[in-house]
Amino acid sequence: MSENQRVIAGRYTLGNLIGRGGMADVYEGTDTILGRKVAIKLLKADLAADPNFESRFREEAQASARMAHPTIVRVYDTGEESSIDDNGTERRTPYIVMEYVRGTVLRDLMHERKISTPEAIGYAEGILTALEFSHRAGIIHRDIKSANIMVTDTGLVKVMDFGIARTISDGSATQAHTTGIVGTAQYFSPEQARGESVDKRTDLYSTGVVLYEMLAGRPPFTGETAVSVAYQHVSEAVTPPSVFNPELSAALDQVVLRSLAKDRNDRFQNAEEFRESLLAASLDPTAAPAPTQVEETPVEEPTFEELLSEDFVVPEAAPTVEEETISPPTEAFAPTSDTNPFATIGVEFEDIDNEDSPKPAKKSNPSQRPSPGLLWGIGSGVSVVLVGLLVWLLAFGGGGVLNFHPSEGGTPVAAVTGLTYDAAKALLEGQKLVVSEQFETSATVDADSVIRTDPPAGTKVAEGTMVILYVSSGKTQVAVPDLAGMTEAEAQIALENAKLTLGTITEGNSASVAKGAVLSTDPVRGSQVAQGSVVNLLISSGLVTVPDVVNKNLSDALRILEGPDVALTVTTSSQQPCAGGAAPLGVIVLQQSIPAGNVAAGSAITIYVSCTQ
């Protein structure tokens, strides 16, 4: 059976090969059950037996499948297909079934023509919207670059390739642990270049590089090798993009430079903050002039029901603006021209000329019309923007999750508050809903139990809707302060300031700490504990414990009694005067003036030895 006759998982037929890469091949495909075109990514046969590649392939599917958002390429299905090769050996082929996208890779778009400032802002807004959603889902992309961004024919952005993504809880993984990414040094954050741990601010830095590249027409750093470029990200100052594009405003310069701060604490701390600052800068009166506006044609305002309809068409804002259809996020698109839309998921295309392939429709030049991403974000008085903004609010009003809440129809979200995450997840997945986990501290809900859901319990939603489970991580964690040397009263104040509770107080002996001062705490200093936790104190009694040194060698006895744990003042003598008054003393202790037990710190003690003849 030839490749284009294969059927995967009994429902996906493979069509033409549309791309090949070092790790996988990508085919056109058809979901025979839902009747939609899909893209099917198959791990290469020689890699399928390698646990490392198979694991990475699976992680890509799992990371992408957790995120259902119009700005992220959807993963519909994943699994392993078994087949028998020519030698009669069973062959396992992991596969990923993805959304089929029509558009142009941002990298190719920048090579074709200059990106206008409004377009650049709109595209960056789309990337940041995708990152806001993925970060809320607990996923760090770690490889944001222009080659991983698709601009659809309608001017919207789709982020691709979560193949090296990591969960935020696994943020300790460093860039050095990921294979096949040396070529992306142009977009490295300083922490990635140093091989340090990454977090969501790493993605924001890489987005800043993409934004700089669009605005300035060139990347912030260039070099002959990846190492030289990475070094510049770590140590070289960024030249403001306005140096290369004088039309840019000072406000845009400031946003870009902040996004590219070397210290991640000086950058934007989340995607929403970055996006809002960028849109605010775009409204700055000194910003680059917007494209020439044409006279607008009044349009009739749509009804609420029309906005929710999949067939709703955005009215024309002007004769030069093409009619666009706002489609649900799962709508499939076909690749356009010779652009490789799947290069962003780790696949390089071959030039495959198939006369049976449908010919793409002629595209309009996005630079000749306002960027839809920008229009939706900024919001002007034009009717198209009002409609787009209303659709945006309807779609993303629930904290970034695509949740339509119709009053009738759909499945009511189960009430899972108080259940453990595993139990709640099983219940919701039984309703054919997609579950995402997000942690929150809680003073009242036990750790690993569900605090609430979004959408709330009882909301009627369609199958496949994502439900965020807000799971308790327990009470807010605080560090036990260093109380050593403090008095009891001082220690109590320090604990109250740390929102901790003073527990039991026990005395302990010490040769170096004054009576009444804190020796140690339980839990020990620096320990992370929940707010309100009890901290017990060990306070110095002002005493030391005298050990029994009788029958010990004199040198050993002196070492023990004068050591830091006892620190007594020791005198050596004989039990009776030695003959002649100057006879040498013996080496075995016969008696000590203070018996074993507690004594005030710094006390004097005499140990007695025999006289030698």
TrEMBL record:
<dbReference type="Pfam" id="PF00069">
    <property type="entry name" value="Pkinase"/>
</dbReference>
<dbReference type="InterPro" id="IPR005543">
    <property type="entry name" value="PASTA_dom"/>
</dbReference>
<feature type="region of interest" description="Disordered">
    <location>
        <begin position="320"/>
        <end position="340"/>
    </location>
</feature>
<feature type="domain" description="PASTA">
    <location>
        <begin position="474"/>
        <end position="541"/>
    </location>
</feature>
<dbReference type="InterPro" id="IPR017441">
    <property type="entry name" value="Protein_kinase_ATP_BS"/>
</dbReference>
<protein>
    <submittedName>
        <fullName>Unannotated protein</fullName>
    </submittedName>
</protein>
<keyword id="KW-1133">Transmembrane helix</keyword>
<keyword id="KW-0067">ATP-binding</keyword>
<dbReference type="InterPro" id="IPR000719">
    <property type="entry name" value="Prot_kinase_dom"/>
</dbReference>
<keyword id="KW-0472">Membrane</keyword>
<feature type="domain" description="PASTA">
    <location>
        <begin position="410"/>
        <end position="473"/>
    </location>
</feature>
<dbReference type="InterPro" id="IPR008271">
    <property type="entry name" value="Ser/Thr_kinase_AS"/>
</dbReference>
<dbReference type="GO" id="GO:0005524">
    <property type="term" value="F:ATP binding"/>
</dbReference>
<keyword id="KW-0723">Serine/threonine-protein kinase</keyword>
<keyword id="KW-0808">Transferase</keyword>
<dbReference type="InterPro" id="IPR011009">
    <property type="entry name" value="Kinase-like_dom_sf"/>
</dbReference>
<feature type="domain" description="Protein kinase">
    <location>
        <begin position="12"/>
        <end position="279"/>
    </location>
</feature>
<feature type="transmembrane region" description="Helical">
    <location>
        <begin position="374"/>
        <end position="396"/>
    </location>
</feature>
<dbReference type="GO" id="GO:0004674">
    <property type="term" value="F:protein serine/threonine kinase activity"/>
</dbReference>
<keyword id="KW-0677">Repeat</keyword>
<keyword id="KW-0547">Nucleotide-binding</keyword>
<keyword id="KW-0812">Transmembrane</keyword>
<dbReference type="Pfam" id="PF03793">
    <property type="entry name" value="PASTA"/>
</dbReference>
<keyword id="KW-0418">Kinase</keyword>
